[in-house]
UniProtKB/TrEMBL annotation:
Molecular-function GO term, any one: 6-pyruvoyltetrahydropterin synthase activity
Organism expressing this protein natively: Bradyrhizobium elkanii
Keyword Transit peptide among record annotations: no
UniProt pathway: Purine metabolism; 7-cyano-7-deazaguanine biosynthesis
Swiss-Prot/TrEMBL keywords: Lyase, Metal-binding, Queuosine biosynthesis, Zinc
Protein name (database record): 6-carboxy-5,6,7,8-tetrahydropterin synthase
Function: Catalyzes the conversion of 7,8-dihydroneopterin triphosphate (H2NTP) to 6-carboxy-5,6,7,8-tetrahydropterin (CPH4) and acetaldehyde.
Keyword Iron: no
Cofactor note: Binds 1 zinc ion per subunit.
Chemical reaction(s) catalysed: 7,8-dihydroneopterin 3'-triphosphate + H2O = 6-carboxy-5,6,7,8-tetrahydropterin + triphosphate + acetaldehyde + 2 H(+)
Upper classification of the organism: Bacteria, Pseudomonadati, Pseudomonadota, Alphaproteobacteria, Hyphomicrobiales
Amino acid sequence: MRISQAFKFEAAHRLPNVPETHRCHRMHGHSYRIELVLSGRVDPRTGFVIDFFELEQVLGPLLRQLDHHCLNDIHGLENPTVENIAIWIWDKIRPRLQQLSAVKVFETAGCWAEYDGDEP
Ligand SMILES: [Zn+2]
């Protein structure tokens, strides 16, 4: 069984390693969407793979770290592409969520990265 939960945060960023002529070189903001995908067996008693409330508890501190901040200022996100944000989130929450199978980070409705813990 696979379950997903979506979260949102707003943040500013700029991409330091693109050419100066690239639009993402300039500071700008996005309404990011995170989707956590978990897979596992349905517990026969609870009926859950995992309680969504538990996911909120695990991701909450990270969301507070990201929301309405400049991502470039956060340790580990000096080059805050969606790829690097997905890896950053995965590395922080996977130890507490063994059923985590993917982290998706959407920068816009049409642009996202999906990380499943394999080699980045
Ligand atoms: Zn951007």
